[in-house]
């Protein structure tokens, strides 16, 4: 019997294939059934040291729909961090106010540090350019719903693969499911070497290419990512790659694509994906964003031990 009670959610690498499938199964139940009240009396601390819309609000909605309460912040300027308080001291204090912590931070490793510092479960809501495991569960759930399966699919990752933590986590997760992966990016934004080495160890089939046209006829899923201006040390380096890839209905019409191709995007989008795609059969990214609520309901309920 699988139990995730009191488990920290820091990296998708910490999950077995069976645990991933378990979360997807529970997510489906959460979407179909009213579970209001099962987290009554529980408090979630939403600690966002970095901007967020979908992740922060979907965690808040999930907790409240299950009957729990939410405290926290989304503005670093309102915290004692500006006075010099360390992350470790902050979370050790906040631990006494809640039952579970969800943390987004601009530094890689911040979630692991937090989990090592407190005695309640910690969920990584994105740490620097490293990983974003709960988004990965949302992505997998969306793929499963839109394609009917997650085994043996061909997945294209497009855009910023160097700093794109959602792409990093999803690639690791798909290694469990016999996926063929195509990493589509300019040389300066390639998938980091350590991630590729991990995929090689897992005997995952992958290929690095510069253009979507090279592989469009092979793809079941195209996972589009934003080129993240905030991750670049120098603005001039961002300007070199800004707008390098831009998907639109007309672009997709010109490509040779497989029937049933679906486009995912963790959002927000800037100029890499035109609104003309929104009404096409390819687009599932808004459904993807909405799936954040049942998936995070499943994660919260499982980690807090009310579903086993």
Task: Give a structural overview.
- This protein is an alpha/beta fold and 308 residues long.
- It has 2 domains: 12-131 and 292-303, Aspartate/ornithine carbamoyltransferase (Rossmann fold), CATH 3.40.50.1370; 133-289, Aspartate/ornithine carbamoyltransferase (Rossmann fold).
- It is built from 11 helices and 9 strands.
- The protein has helices at 17-32, 54-65, 87-94, 110-117, 133-147, 165-174, 193-201, 235-241, 249-254, 285-290, 292-303, and strands at 43-48, 69-73, 100-105, 122-127, 154-158, 180-184, 205-209, 221-224, 262-264.
- A 5-stranded parallel sheet has the order 7-6-5-8-9, covered by helices on one side. A 4-stranded parallel sheet has the order 2-1-3-4, with helices on both faces.
- Helix 2 (54-65) packs across helix 11 and helix 5 (133-147) packs across helix 11.
- The relative contact order is 0.17.
